[in-house]
Specification:
Helix content is 7%, strand content 36%. It is built from three helices and 28 strands. The longest helix has 18 residues, at 2-19. The termini are far apart. The strands form six sheets. Strands 10-9-12-17-14-15 form a six-stranded mixed sheet, with no helix packed on it. It has a six-stranded mixed sheet with strand order 21-20-22-27-24-25, with no helix packed on it. The protein is mostly beta strands and 480 residues long.
Length: 480
């Protein structure tokens, strides 16, 4: 009997090896032209002569190989695979100045990493804020053990993004300028859904679809709803959740959701899907801006595509109330607590910058990972990484707490590379800094990108289980 069990175990192991595969992509990154909002044709960063970009798809357990060649004559590039922890392959993570140097024109880099996480992700350039010029696309990891696989018939990808007619280097130059002392972010020219407007999505009555939703924006969060249909949230940022019913979700730049939507049992009408950019983020709203983008669930292509209903107010689902499906309980024994005070302020040159603990980030000349690997015992000395990298050294295997106080009047998403957070406390608008006076949830929600409310705080916890790999970022075009 014992021998029989060994045979079964060996066979299972061999079957797993056979099932895993290598998925390869050859990406020639170059300029193309595109006009996704129908209002302005512009030069855009494409792959293999095309835009929108190809999806990266893999199964849990696969090895992904991306051969990236830079054919952009006037830009260097890198690729980041947003949300993948890259445990054991930090050098493949992509942020320039942190884990690699940029890929110059005419050069190539091969990214090779193993997929251990299921869920919904995306890839994008991670240098000089250039990904809003087009270099971003979905990355989908299929899970044969998806706990919800028997609850839906098909899955679809739904991307959201903002869109600019101007080039990012020009927009960033005007943003970080003495002529913009308030730090007003550039307002997008349009909102997109699946990299277009007025898309139609054919559906069949009675079927349930899982929509993988990705916000690939530079700046704008969006409210999203499907008229006369409810959504069941089952995943956020690669973390399965206990199903939660939502009529509307709020999705910041870089966040992802998977939702189950069951179609009606008749074909008497088609229904709009609406994304609306959060105009609270904009210092001024141009009269010409349409903040909305609409697609349609099409039950019958011969019937009209109705206009979306006008809403009196937005009332999105609160992602803080989600419960992870695995029930992982609160990390209640904190080994190291880091307080980070965030604000936007003038550095003295008339321009507006983001500060954490009174420091604004300056990228090191040598990527941080290279310093970690080449400095021996000095790697634990934060001084070697540069005074304005704002480095913190963590011990492996500890519970780390980040208390983030935002003194800015705007909403901000924050993202951690290599980990997901437990969000154990989040203040309402203008609630002030954290005062250690809240009751933590028993099983806090986890995701890798959380929004911090204006003039408020969020308390995050994670396990430092990914050596050499923790980059904490905020603010829109650098959210990667």
């Amino acid at each position: 009997m014992a021998f029989g069990n060994q045979v079964v175990l060996i066979w299972t192991f061999l079957a797993a090896i056979v099932a895993a595969k290598t998925v390869s992509y050859d990406f020639d990154i170059g300029w193309v032209t595109a006009n996704p909002d129908g209002a302005y044709e512009r030069t855009t960063i494409g792959i293999n002569g095309q835009w929108p970009l190809p999806y990266i798809r893999a199964d849990v357990g696969d090895q992904v190989v991306v051969n990236a060649h830079n054919s952009l004559q006037n830009r260097s590039v890198s690729l980041h695979f947003h949300g993948l922890y890259m445990n054991g392959s930090t050098e493949m993570d992509g942020p320039v100045g942190v884990s690699q140097c940029s890929i110059p024109f005419g050069s190539s880099m091969t990214y090779k990493f193993n997929i251990a996480q299921p869920g919904t992700y995306w890839y994008h350039a991670h240098n000089d804020g250039i990904y809003p010029d087009g270099l971003r696309g979905p990355l989908i990891v299929n899970d044969p053990e998806n706990p919800f696989k028997d609850l839906y018939d098909e899955e679809m990808v739904l991307t959201l993004s903002d869109w600019y007619h101007g080039f990012m280097p020009d927009l960033l130059s005007s943003f970080k300028s003495p002529l913009n002392p308030t730090g007003a972010e550039p307002v997008p020219d349009a909102a997109l859904m699946n990299d277009t407007q007025n898309a139609t999505i054919s559906v069949q009555p009675g079927k349930t679809y899982m929509f993988r939703i990705v916000n690939m924006a530079a700046f704008a969060a969006q409210y999203l709803w499907i008229q006369d249909h409810q959504m069941q949230i089952v995943e956020v940022d690669g973390i399965y959740t206990t199903p939660a019913t939502a009529d509307m979700i709020y999705i910041t730049a870089a966040q992802r959701y998977s939702v189950l939507v069951t179609m009606k049992n008749d074909t008497s009408a088609n229904f709009p899907i609406t994304g609306s950019m959060d105009q609270d983020l904009f210092d001024t709203v141009p009269d010409t801006l349409n903040p909305n983008v609409t697609s349609w669930l099409v039950y019958d292509s011969s019937k009209e595509l109705p206009q979306a209903d006008i809403l009196d107010e937005f009332d999105p689902f609160d992602d803080f109330t989600l419960v992870p499906q695995d029930g992982l309980e609160l990390f209640d024994q904190v080994d190291q607590s880091l307080q980070m005070d965030f604000l936007m302020a003038d550095l003295g040159d008339g321009s507006n910058y983001a500060f954490i603990n009174n420091k604004t980030y300056v990228a090191p000349k040598v990527p941080t990972l290279y310093s970690v690997l080449s400095t021996g015992g000095n790697a634990s000395n934060v001084g070697i990484y540069g005074t304005n990298t704002n480095a913190f050294v963590l011990e492996k295997g500890q519970t780390i707490e980040i208390v983030l106080n935002s003194y800015d009047p705007g909403k901000h998403p924050f993202h951690l590379h290599g980990h997901s957070f437990q969000a154990v406390a989040r203040g309402d608008d203008d609630s002030g800094p954290y005062a250690n006076n809240v009751t933590f949830p028993q099983a806090p929600m986890r995701r890798d990108t959380f929004m911090v409310n204006p003039g408020s705080y969020i308390v995050l916890r994670f396990k430092s289980t990914n050596p050499d790999k923790s980059t904490f970022l905020s603010s829109y075009e650098s959210i990667g």
